[in-house]
Amino acid sequence: MNKYIPTIGIEVHIQVKTETKIFCRCSTNFGDNPNSHICPICTGMPGVMPSINDKVVDLAIKAALALNCNINEISSFARKNYFYPDLPKGYQITQFKYPIAENGYIKLKSGKKIRIGRLHIEEDTGKFIHDKEHESLLDLNRAGVPLIEIVTEPDVSNADEAIEYLKKLRLIIRYCDVSDANMEKGQMRAEPNISIRKDERDDLGVKTEIKNLNSFKAVFKGINSEIKRQSEIIDNNGTIVSTTMLFNEKEQKVAPMRKKETAGDYRYFPEPDLPNLKVLKNRIENIRNEIPELPNNKMKRFKRIFGLREEDIEILISTRELSDFYEHSMEGIKDTQKATNFFIKEFLSLLNKYEINAEEVNFTPEYMKELMQLIENGQINLNAAAKVLDVMQKTGNNPNKIVKELGLEQTGNEEDIKEIVVSVISENREEAERYRNGEEKLFGFLVGQVMKKSKGKADPVIVNKMIKEIL
Amino acid sequence: MNSRIINEKYRNGELTPPQMLDNIYKDIEKNDLNDFITLTKNIAYEEAERSLKRIKNNKTISPIDGIPISIKDNFAVKNTRMTCASHILEDFISPYNATVVKKIREAGGIIVGKTNMDEFAMGSSTENSCFGSSINPVNKDIVPGGSSGGSAVSVKAGHAAISLGSDTGGSVRQPAAFCSVFGFKPTYGVVSRYGLTAFSSSLDTVGIIGSNIEDVTNMFNTIKGIDEYDSTLRNIEEIDKNRKVIIGFVNNIDGLDEAILNVYREKRRIIEKSGIKTRDINIEHLPESIAVYQIISMCESSSNLARYDGIKYGLQIKEAETMKDIYSKVRGIGFGKEVKRRIMTGTYFLSYKNAMYYEISKKMRKQIYENMKKVFKEVDYILMPSTLNLPFKRGERMNDPLKMHLSDSLTAFCNLADLPAINIPAGIYNELPVGIQLIGNSFDDINLLKEAENIEKIWSQE
């Protein structure tokens, strides 16, 4: 496989999060009964006309700005003509010659920029479902759901870069609240196009496009399987044909679907029913002001103020809500690494346990901050803190109150701890003896017994010191 | 039929809206000119009763309250059949109202029926209707013109006071000329197209046919104005004219019938005699305008008619093997010859390298538009014949599509240049009506209608 240099470009379709469809007022709600969100406009009845949903334009501009694109103050719509039952009008309204935005990029970890050639607005198709043998069903709920299409230049070198690009793109889109960009729900769809060549100096090879990739894993496997397929063809002196490839979920590989269409097949022409889309400068500036701090900047800032490892920050910024929650909880905390470790370990397992997102927990970041302070001041130990956190989720109560109610204040009093240590040793003479004789692993057992007896209140540092001293 | 007279009779108690409907439907039955595809009796009588109450209480809501109106069968009327005179939509019931239909009903207008037309508004004689052509009440041997032939016939025959048609390249003005009535095509972007079945979306306009200017004007005032469902619209106001009106006349119209030329000269003489200033003008690219019109309209129609695929509504074919088989059978059986011809030609002109013809046509259109803007710096209106030829005989051009296409020669450039224009009946000679159109500058529709009224008065006083 290394014999050839792959060149990859990626087209991504993202469903934009609006209440209503792009050209009519039907709901965009996903998962309702088939054909429950349809009207004369989105079903292509004779005589209907589209009128643009301004919210779609706003969100497209927002995404474009977050992706470092230039916004075209005048763009326009075009018709892409083809026949398929899921396309009610027999054409898709999209942007062709004049997209709303151009020339953006996403920067990868390595510093490499993946250039974004264009970002444009278009409408989604319905769903044509082959239910049983000899029976096909048409659901037009999705017809007219707004999409943005984001097209890269052929800057992606391999499947790893493709995945990194897509994950970064998804994160930015989610930060801006343009879409939930859930690939499994079809809210984000990636179509990589791939060509290979022997040498950097050669012209780009003939490219193929892969469709039906519903997960990052599928994108990764699809790209690699297509590079392999093309390599084998070239190895055997064959020629690559411009094809649309379909990813087979079961076999985890690609197979040719049809000859790839060219623009000429689609008979594009300007959409006469929609005037040019004019975007005023102050509209762009207003939207620019709504864009939150983006992941790359947040990464830099967290590194600077909290001095954390990149891997930790990546987890913390994986959603905007989590990063905000984290940042709020950390106010005034000095031992940031210790607090962060606790946050990543315990807060995230809490989210996992209750299957919720950061914005859905039962308590405010303010309470989390108070809990962090209790740890930092040595008032409770980490075990107790984890317990408190769980109670906070269950009751929504203030951590100070919970600590008092459960009597979890940490004991730092050496005399008290010594008393417990002595009693634990006397109750576990055999284990104490074996430890003394070199069975190091029993140390942990003894510590555990002391903590248990202290109901978790003993300061583990003192416990450690005390056991070593006595034994 | 004249609204003013009908209104007077309503007020005097000589006539009621339901009685008027009785008369109309009786006459349609007795004197069947095939001007209607569907009669909307239920809706009509309901509206008539409501209108009658308002008349009795002296609370009529508009000049068209209680007035019988016919609507071309390419406009959507809720719960009513809309066929576009095509087999493919023969059983299609519209689930919604066109904006213009909604406005007419809100103004108390009574919709008596849906009128005959050329299939999907493609044609100039109403002979491309899957229901057969309509009969011209002026002369039964000649075609009524098209594509809004049924609308023109219904007004001429007194089956409606006013009719809505559609004008993409002359489809309101040409049948108005052939049936000797008024036919007005407003500026593109002044009347909502929402609910008008699209033929060529950048050229389609909602047109009005009436027996007098007052009716046309009242209808125009009812239906114009912005609409949330059509984003290509703007509101218009009366434009101040700060000079004495100058009317342009076009010399050397290639291929103009001599009889029409004589009428045209005579009408000019009368106008000059009345003291109105005239000037000779030249319309550049008039001969090429018909080709430009054909290419643009066919390209757009090939896309607009793609939705008729037998999947969602309309003609269904169950005996088919594959998707492609369904498409070709439904469209093969559903569409008539002329519609297929235009879809295929339009598809050709948009595909691959042929798209350059479409691009050139768009450039030519822009050129024609700019030229007309220059002309309207010199004159306020243009008067010129609506057609090159006198009305032709039934069947005469059915096997000569190129000649049929030339029927729009003098009208299509107004659609290309977004100009308002109105056919004014200029007399009937040897049982053959002649129409002359008054053309105005874009968005000067209100003045245009006033000037048309003035000209008609001058001609009728002679």
Succession of helices and strands of chain B: HHEHEHEHEHEEHEHEHHHHEHHEEH
What does the overall shape of chain A look like?
A: elongated
- What strand line-up does the widest sheet of chain A have? 2-6-7-10-1-11-12-13-14
Q: Please tell me the total number of domains of chain A.
A: 3
Which residues of chain A sit in consecutive blocks of at least 5 with pLDDT less than 50? none
Helix count of chain B equals 15
Mean pLDDT of chain B: 96
Structural class from helices and strands of chain A?
alpha+beta
Instruction: Please tell me how large the radius of gyration of chain A is.
Output: 29 Å
Give the DSSP E fraction of chain B (strand runs of 2 or more residues). 5-15%
Largest beta-sheet characterization of chain B = 11 strands, mixed
Radius of gyration of chain B: 21 Å
| Overall 3D shape of chain B | globular
The whole-number mean of residue pLDDT values of chain A reads 92
Q: How would you briefly describe this protein structure?
A:
Chain A has helices spanning 54-66, 159-175, 216-235, 281-290, 295-306, 310-316, 320-329, 336-354, 365-376, 382-395, 399-406, 414-427, 429-436, 442-453, 460-470, and strands at 5-15, 70-71, 74-75, 78-81, 91-94, 101-107, 113-123, 127-132, 135-139, 146-152, 188-197, 208-211, 243-248, 253-259, 269-270, 277-278. Chain A is α+β, with helices and mostly antiparallel strands and 471 residues long. The model of chain A has no long low-confidence stretch (mean pLDDT 92).
Structural features, described:
The complex is a heterodimer of chains A (471) and B (462). Chain A has 471 residues and is α+β, with helices and mostly antiparallel strands. Chain A folds into three domains: 5-287, no CATH class; 295-406, no CATH class; 414-470, Arc Repressor Mutant, subunit A, CATH 1.10.10. Chain A has helices spanning 54-66, 159-175, 216-235, 281-290, 295-306, 310-316, 320-329, 336-354, 365-376, 382-395, 399-406, 414-427, 429-436, 442-453, 460-470; strands spanning 5-15, 70-71, 74-75, 78-81, 91-94, 101-107, 113-123, 127-132, 135-139, 146-152, 188-197, 208-211, 243-248, 253-259, 269-270, 277-278. In chain A, helix 7 (320-329) crosses helix 9. Chain B has a domain at 291-356. Chain B has helices spanning 3-12, 17-30, 41-56, 99-106, 149-156, 173-179, 213-223, 258-273, 286-304, 323-334, 337-350, 355-378, 401-405, 412-416, 445-461; strands at residues 36-39, 68-72, 110-115, 162-167, 182-185, 205-210, 246-250, 277-281, 381-385, 421-429, 432-440. Chain B is globular, with a radius of gyration of 21 Å. The chains are: A alpha+beta (471), B alpha/beta (462). The A-B interface holds A 40, 43-52, 79, 81, 83-85, 88-91, 138, 264-265, 267-269, 272-275 and B 74-76, 82, 84, 89, 92, 94-96, 98, 193-198, 200-202, 228-232, 299-300, 302-303, 305-309, 311-313, 323, 327, 347, 350-353, 355, 358.
